[in-house]
Amino acid sequence: MAMTAVRAAAAAGVPASLSRFRGALVAAVLGDCIGGEFEGAEEVPMESVMQHLNGLDDETKGNGILEYSDDTAMTRCVVQSLLSRAGFDEHDLAHRFAKEYSASPGRGYGSGVVQVLKKLSSPQINDVYQPARDQFNGRGSFGNGGAMRAAPFALAFPDLAHVKKVARLGAMLTHSCSLGYNGAVLQALAVHLSLQGALALPHQFISRLITEMEEVESEEAALRDARILKEAEKPFCERLHRIRDLMDRSKVSIEEVISELGNGIAALHSVPTAIFCVLHCLQPQESFPESYSGLERTIAYSLALGGDTDTIACMAGAIAGAHYGIEAIPQSWIRCCEGADDADVNAKWLHVLYHKSPQGGRSETEDKSENGTEKKTRAE
Ligand SMILES: [Mg+2]
């Protein structure tokens, strides 16, 4: 292992250290802000990526010059809701999403989610999951909008089963197709495992994700959606197997990664891609300066794939940040990105919440009946 990787791993410290929480939440913001430059680009030459990143060192530029987009706006809502409710509360979260959108609608939200957010802002809304279910003639969205904001669930609760459950519920507020919300489950799982130090053994990391997603994708709704959309029986598992194959190759081109995993706005075409970016950049790459930490490599590589760069870099950033910790992030990058300082503060509070709830805590949802209408029973 290269010395830089050893140093970064040492800096991140023990599993679930504060450094890892800070790294995850801050690097997610960085991926979003820095990745926005190339969003939608079909081809991104590595020279353009490096030019963009080198520009962040220019101290004459103002603080927070790179604005965050919907990825961070919605992630902030998740964080604030988890912290203020000390657990998952779908009504509170739905309300925060709607409020955030109406306060700042120009953050690059997709047109589909805007319809949902407008319905969620209605004071009459009873079932907060209904607007998402109504999307696309009742089929629901399979975009990556649920996955892009899933990291905080892994940072709030230590219990894996609970993380899977709330990541799914949190995504279903806007993405009711299993190919959408299971992308969020996979992203949260990846952050959870990374936080535990699991990326020290990359092949075991991917095997564990496959095992977990085998179970997740065995559900009837997932099997049915995959059939309807003519995907593999267990689409995310199939992609994770492709990642394992790519990891075993001595050389992988950007074109191969895009053709095998995708770089688009569907969760299936971006969450596995983000995971691959992290795994691929664990070792130094010729294309990047030797001085780069693994986290810097991961963000840079995510941008070079083009496509939905802000979201892929945001998701890859969260996973990588949970592995390398805050020390692997350059100060100049933090300075340039709107919301990075807030993320750092919030990460410290999530760290407290996580360590307060060894069993994952009880969520609002668990305190309610199936249809979610029963009165809250948990004391505030
Ligand atoms: Mg965005």
From TrEMBL:
Task: Please provide, alphabetically and separated by semicolons, the GO molecular function terms listed in this UniProt record.
Answer: metal ion binding; poly(ADP-ribose) glycohydrolase activity
Q: Which EC number(s) does the record attach to this protein? A: 3.2.1.143
Q: This chain belongs to which protein, by name? A: ADP-ribosylhydrolase ARH3
- Name the source organism: Nothobranchius furzeri
Q: What are its GO cellular component terms?
A: chromosome; mitochondrial matrix; nucleus
**Which compartment or compartments is the protein found in?**
Chromosome; Cytoplasm; Mitochondrion matrix; Nucleus
Residues that bind Mg(2+): S69, D70, D71, D308, D310, T311
**Subunit record text:** Monomer.
- Where does this protein have compositionally biased stretches of type Basic and acidic residues? 363-380
